[in-house]
Amino acid sequence: MSHTIHVVFPCQEGKGADLLGILNEILGDTRAFDGCESIEVYTNSDNPDTVILWEKFETRAHHEAYLAWRIENGMLDVLGPILASDAEFNYLDDHPDI
Questions:
Q1: For the chain, what is the total number of helices (H) and then of strands (E)?
Q2: Cα–Cα distance, 96 to 98 (Å, whole number)
Q3: Which of 17, 37, 52, 56 places its Cα 20 to 30 Å from the Cα of 5?
Q4: Residue 44 per-residue DSSP state
Q5: Block means of pLDDT (10 residues each) for the chain, length 98 residues?
Q6: How many domains does the chain divide into?
Q7: 63: how many CB neighbours lie within 10 A of its CB?
Q8: Rg over CA atoms, the chain
């Protein structure tokens, strides 16, 4: 069963487009990462400096391995000047019977 992750990137004013440009360059590697099933990118209609990812990974462990890989490869250094605060990761539990 897939694991869904909702990620919110609060960007500094006017920096949402910069993050979208970075994501456009790097998400091919994300989609090819072991366990990644899908990733969708959104912006908040009322605040385009809030970028949201809707991710599906095979397991939470696959996603955590992916995050560790991104950190090891310096992604925090790239995001630091763009983000207004830390990204928020929400690991979601599915309730299909409701």
A1: 3, 4
A2: 6
A3: 17
A4: E
A5: 94 98 96 97 98 97 97 94 97 92
A6: 1
A7: 22
A8: 14
